[in-house]
TrEMBL record:
Residues 257-341 form the NTF2 domain. PROSITE patterns: NTF2_DOMAIN. Gene3D superfamilies: 3.10.450.50. It comes from the Bacteria. This is NTF2 domain-containing protein. Signal peptide: none annotated.
Amino acid sequence: MELKGKGYYIWRLKNCEKGNPDRIVDLAREAKLSHVLIKIADGAFPYNVDLESGFDYVRPVIKKLQSHNIAVWGWQYIYGNHPDQEAQIAVKRSIELGVDGYVVNAEHEFKQPKKAAAASRYMNILRNNLGSLPIALSSYRFPSYHPDFPFSNFLKRCDYNMPQVYWMKSINTGGAQLQRCINEYNQIKPFRTIVPTGPTFKEHGWIPQENDVTEFLQVAQKLNLPAVNFWYWEGCRRDLPKFWDLVRNYRYENSTAGNNFLSQYFAALNSNNPDKVIKFYHSNAVHIRSGGAIVGKPAIREWITNLMEEHTGQKFILLQENVDRHIHNFRWQVQKPNGGVTEGRDTMGVIDNTIRFHYSIIQQP
């Protein structure tokens, strides 16, 4: 499933509206949440399950939320000491509960020597057993601060990247923190669609400023990020209810003009009909790529035809878009049957819904 809109993490379900499914659904609907992320495993063990009675607090909440068209993602904190067992409980819980997606929360434990191999092993088991279920990584906001963390080992098997954009001990930096986070992850391969997580919690006397959280949301919209998350439901409702109100009342939508144009362009790409794509280009459009520049529809049509033939039967996926007046910057990918990925980073100049110039960089990570 494709994530769009606002989501909230739930950590300890008993502390979240006393675990009452009806109350959780009512508040989620009132806040217009598109998705909720619930912890269902910790390490190699199930989570939010009563140890004495065996009662699973998650199951009734998931059923209730999904019955109201609110997606539920499971999440798990992993340590990497027993990757097989951690992956097995993730698979077991995901299948039993029928979650709509899965988030892998990996942090400082994976900076240790040889943990990159554990990350790859865990992710391979997860992907091989969960099929097409969307998987996301939840980890650090700035990769440059954590050079020992195996970002690529996780992201190779992920569909989404959910960095924790928390700015403890800082003020007036919410938007700048998110922008830097995006800029840094743009340098990490493979790139994955980013759904950032913002802070609505307190820690060691620090709380975010309301204007910071608002700016975080505004910058996410400006960058056309499809969705945002917040940490965490029960802590926010208990300690900082004004932030719950802020998120509830904020209308999160992507800007539509750019999305509509590129959505139509990618639909044409996926039609496997080059004539549908070439209609987007001006008669004297210029296309610049690694092999040089070409001008005019006939030459560009030939390039489009070759691109489609190279990826026959594969889907072109729009990952990220940023629109500034007439300039469209975007990333896309095609996943190959052998597990490889073709990635593109493109810029288009669009006037009156017609492409005047198109600059492409295509990579094979």
